[in-house]
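Just scan this pair:

***
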Amino acid sequence: MRQFLLGGLVGGILLFVWGAVSWTVLPFSISSLHRVSAEDALLGAMKASMGAKGVYYLPAMPPRSGVPANDEQMQKQYNEKLKAGPTALVVFNPRGSEPLRTDQMIYGLVDDFLCALIGVWFLTRSTAYASSYIARAAFFGMFGVLVSFFVHLTNYNWFDYPADYTVAMTLDAVLAWIVSGLGVAAVVKERTAKAA
């Protein structure tokens, strides 16, 4: 249990530190977020049009409830808008937010700790657990590949996320889990039986 918790702690701290370095020092994460012209006008229009906090997809998909199933005209209009573009997926908060709030830092650290704990749990049930340091670190690093395929490549496919953002987030996730794995592999290893 001690090794399990220590691995989660080390892995979680390294995930957290990597996130800070990735977004404040290294160029690839932040450079994948593009700027818009006439930002103030766009923000004003968003506040007037969207209102409530939420995730918005534009053009809006036809409603699934309260609409006759045979309403092909509505679906056709949506398809035409979608083909013509532009499209957008917006995470909207009308109230704004303080930058780098303390509660965000605490939540981020706890989240990274829990993610690392899950990774350690899988590691201790794998053949890599009884193998070399490099094998254990590589096993942990594969979580970055898994996350990237399940999240970033899925978004690239279904929501047309741009390639530069997808590559940056994939690289960030893979490197984060490799760095975390280097620390975890040093403290989480199968104990050899003591010689009698």
Observations:
- The mean pLDDT is 89.
- The longest strand covers residues 54-58.
- Residues 29 and 42 are 24 Å apart (CA to CA).
